[in-house]
C-alpha cells in the first residue's frame, strides 16, 4: 500500500538536499492496492494500481479479472502485456462484468481483446490499447464513458478488427483516436467504432478514426457503424479511408452532424443528416 505521506517525506528530502527546485511529477494514484503479478483477480472494491510493467503468457482467461463493483484500476502509465502468448492468444487484458468499474491511464497490449467492461457505469480513459488481435476496447453496459483513448494496430490474424465496441444505452464515446485496423480472411471486417444493438441514445463525439491499410481486402470496412440502435448521435468526428465513413445500418436511427469522411468510398449512409458534414 502506498501513502501520500511517503511521497511528501521523499519530496521534503529532495528540497533539503537541492533547495527549492522546480520538480515535474507524473500524475498517478499512490494511495492504492498494488497489483504485482499477472494473472490477477480483484475481489474487494477499492482503488488498485500498477507500479511497473506486468506481462503474462496466459493464452486464455483475463490478465486482470475485476469481479466486484466499485473498482478503480489506475495503470499509472505502466503496461499490461500479453504478447508472450503469441498471435493465437484468446486472452483478454482486463475484464469485468461488475458495475462502476474504471480503468485508466496506461497500456494494454497484445491480447485478443484489450479491455472488456460489461457492467453499468464503466469508464475507460487515457488508455493506449495497441497490438490487440481482434478488438481494442469493449463496453457493454448502460452509461459507459470511453474517452481520450488511443486504439492502434488492432487485428492481424483475426477476421474481425474493431477499435471500440459499444453496447450500452446512453453511452458517451469522445476524443478517442482509432487507427490501423487489419482483418484477414474471406469474411474480414474492419470497423473503427461500433455501436451495436442496445446502444440506444449514445453519443459519439470528436473521435478521430483512420484505416491506413484500406483497402485491405476487408468485405466490410466502416469508420463508424451504428447497428440496430436508436437515436445515436454522431457529432464532429473525423473518419479517413474506409469503405463507408459513417453507416447507420439496419433499423438504426440518429443524427450525424459536423463530421468529415475523407477518402471513403461512401462517406455517409443511413441516419438523418444534420449540418456541416463533409466527404
Descriptive report:
This protein has 279 residues and is mainly β. It has one helix spanning 4-18; strands spanning 33-34, 40-42, 46-49, 54-55, 62-66, 71-74, 79-81, 92-96, 101-109, 113-117, 123-130, 135-139, 145-147, 150-155, 160-166, 172-174, 177-182, 189-195, 203-205, 208-210, 220-227, 233-235, 238-240, 244-249, 255-257, 260-262, 266-269, 272-273. The chain has a single domain (32-273), classed as 3 Solenoid (Pectate Lyase C-like). The strands form two sheets. It has an 18-stranded parallel sheet that branches. The protein has a ten-stranded parallel sheet with strand order 2-5-8-10-12-15-18-21-24-27, with no helix packed on it. The model is unreliable at 1-11 and 13-26 (pLDDT under 50).
Layout of secondary structure:
Elements: H1 4-18, E1 33-34, E2 40-42, E3 46-49, E4 54-55, E5 62-66, E6 71-74, E7 79-81, E8 92-96, E9 101-109, E10 113-117, E11 123-130, E12 135-139, E13 145-147, E14 150-155, E15 160-166, E16 172-174, E17 177-182, E18 189-195, E19 203-205, E20 208-210, E21 220-227, E22 233-235, E23 238-240, E24 244-249, E25 255-257, E26 260-262, E27 266-269, E28 272-273
Parallel strand pairs: 1-3, 2-5, 3-6, 4-7, 5-8, 6-9, 7-9, 8-10, 9-11, 10-12, 11-13, 11-14, 12-15, 13-16, 14-17, 15-18, 16-19, 17-20, 18-21, 19-22, 20-23, 21-24, 22-25, 23-26, 24-27, 25-28
